[in-house]
Amino acid sequence: MAASPHNADPRGPQRIRDNRDTEPLRDTRDVDREVGGGMRYGWTWIWVWLLILAFIVAIVWFGGWGWAGYGGWWWGDRNAQVTQSAAVNMMNGSGVAVLNATNKQPFIGHPFNVSDVPVQTVANDHAVWVGANGATPMLVVLTGNNNTTANANISEGSRININGTLEKAPPAAQAKQQWSLSDDDANRLEQQGAYINATEVTSQVTSQQP
């Protein structure tokens, strides 16, 4: 077929149409605004989800373990905290300040009396550890032949009344030999540096009997 002005020679070089020649160019500022707006929109949702997650974690933590004495209904042993607080409130007497004090040295040589204090552990017939449940206990040594845990009807969990004096604790080895304490009890006593020399101990059950 012969070439004509209307029909180009198919064997000749063909011109490839470039669509870029006909499409208008977009303003780069428009593109930047679209990209930037999309990124800001994405970051906004990220922050929203992070805040929601933090709020959920805070609720779970408050309900599970509690915060500042509140909450902790699920796993935080809230009942134990309430029980301990109730035990502290029920105790009364000058000995309460001694039991709550971290440094007991200033009280050595002073009279000690307390009522309604829980017995945490009975070491033997002449020695018990007392204090609110969950708190660090103090050793009470019952002096006198008839002043024993059996005669006073004292057992672990009992609530007792104590009259006596606060004395300086002997070395662990001496306390272990003198009062038949275990190694752990003797070492704890030596670290505290003081014990209660009880001249009179009665249990709440015994003291309430006519």
Tell me the number of structural domains: 2
Query: Pairing-aware structural class of the strands and helices?
Result: alpha+beta
Whole-number radius of gyration?
40 Å
- CATH topology call of the largest domain: OB fold (Dihydrolipoamide Acetyltransferase, E2P)
Order of helices and strands: HHHEEEEHHEH
Instruction: For the largest sheet, list the strands in their spatial order.
Output: 1-2-3-5-4
Task: Using the alpha-carbon principal axes, give the shape.
Answer: elongated
Specify the number of helices. 6
Termini gap: 137 Å
Average pLDDT for all residues: 77
Query: Beta-strand percentage?
Result: 15-25%
**Main beta sheet:** 5 strands, mixed, barrel
What's the oligomerization state?
Answer: single chain
Query: Can you name the CATH architecture of the largest domain?
Result: Beta Barrel
Strand tally is 5
Look at the structure and give the CATH class of the largest domain. Mainly Beta
Helix content: 25-40%
Poorly predicted residue ranges: 78-87, 206-210
CATH superfamily of the largest domain: Nucleic acid-binding proteins
Explain what the structure shows:
With 210 residues, the protein is of the alpha+beta class. It folds into two domains: 26-76; 89-208, OB fold (Dihydrolipoamide Acetyltransferase, E2P) (Beta Barrel). The chain is 38% helix and 20% strand. The protein is built from six helices and five strands; from the N terminus they run αααββββααβα. The longest helix has 37 residues, at 28-64. It is elongated.
